[in-house]
Amino acid sequence: MSSSGNIVVWLILLVSKFIMISMIEGEPQVPCYFIFGDSVVDNGNNNDLITTAKANYFPYGIDFPTGPKNGRFTNGRNKADFLAELIGFDNFIPPFAIARGPEILKGVNYASGAAGIRDETGYRLGDRISMNRQLLNHQVTILRINSILRNVTAAKSLLNKCLYTVDMGNNDYLNNYLQPKYYPSSLLYTPEKFADVLAQQFSRQLKTLYGYGARKVAVSNIGLLGCLPEETRVFGRNASGCVDFINNYVQLFNDKLKPLIDDLNTNLSGARFTYINITSISLGGPANDFTVFDKPCCIVSDAIAKGQCKEGEIPCSNRNQYIFYDNFHPTEVANLATAKRSYNAFLPTDAHPMDISQLIQTQ
């Protein structure tokens, strides 16, 4: 056999071996996963910030493998952790605050408690990493990836194949528009106009993310904030059991977000954005073992970080039956349920135009 023939055979054997190893090791369905968002998916970026919006203390993390110092706003894993598992990652995606070296090639989590689409959102609680700052941090990561790979083209190709999830907008209402004592937005804008301004800014941010190489992007809408225990405590309940006017405000934004996603897909070459409908996911689907829908599992604080777990207090023991861990954030089992429905839609209304399992298969 000629030398060129030997090389071909060698390459075939090498590729076959690689495929077999990948199958055995269960390689992730995408090479990397980048996470943008607020406290719903924060995994420690706020730990060292000067802010009350942090969760690196007991009873947060009571069911997490490494304990309460991990910085997640729940008793165990959050939604992004479960999505990473569903996609096939063996390890947690590291927070930007400590992500270093080759591990960033697998992805980075930029999420920050109290962060919003608008820069001023959440300022009363202290420092937080807004969506604009998260995008700047992603630029830093891209430069680091370029340095590791020593090839800009290879770095761009990698980034094009990754999954990106964005969970933003909750705090633009909770820690901005709904607090006129501290933020002027509700005095400057009607609910309709605020939703419009918010959607326009979010569109620019998502286009920036696209410009940095993102092609497969799952964007969650804002859920039923009027059903959060903290909001029903402050504003009281309507016949629905929730605060209807808050849910109506949020729906104004969600109604703009879905066509915004369609617009991005139409006008950005190669873009594969998808809309994850948290409202649909929270309202319907398979029966769970939840028995407590409107109360927190932990004892909540009445200090400046109102609604978060009170430090050192023992939470409920039947955590798998609660939707809420504190007055704002889901329990681990609720996070798992949301992640599963985001990844593999149960209802047609859960995702548009596709769920995450379909998104990561797109070319």
Short description:
The chain is an alpha/beta fold. The chain has 12 helices and 7 strands. The N terminus is likely disordered.
- Share of residues in strands: 5-15%
Order of strands across the main sheet: 1-2-3-4-7
Number of strands: 7
pLDDT averaged residue by residue: 92
Which percent bin holds the helix content?
40-55%
Radius of gyration: 21 Å
Name the shape in a single word.
globular
Continuous helix count: 12
Distance between the termini: 38 Å
Element-by-element helix/strand order? HEHHHEHHHEHHEHEEHEH
Describe the structure.
The chain is 40% helix and 8% strand. The chain is built from 12 helices and 7 strands. The strands form 2 sheets. It has a 5-stranded mixed sheet, covered by helices on one side. A two-stranded parallel sheet has the order 5-6. The longest helix has 24 residues, at 244-267. The protein is globular. The model is unreliable at 1-24 (pLDDT under 50).
Draw up the topology in text.
Elements: H1 3-25, E1 33-37, H2 79-87, H3 131-149, H4 152-161, E2 163-167, H5 170-177, H6 185-188, H7 191-211, E3 216-220, H8 229-235, H9 244-267, E4 272-276, H10 278-283, E5 292-296, E6 322-324, H11 332-343, E7 351-352, H12 356-359
Parallel strand pairs: 1-2, 2-3, 3-4, 5-6
Antiparallel strand pairs: 4-7
Helix pairs in contact: 2-11, 7-9
Features:
363 residues, alpha/beta, two-stranded parallel sheet, 12 helices, globular, disordered N terminus
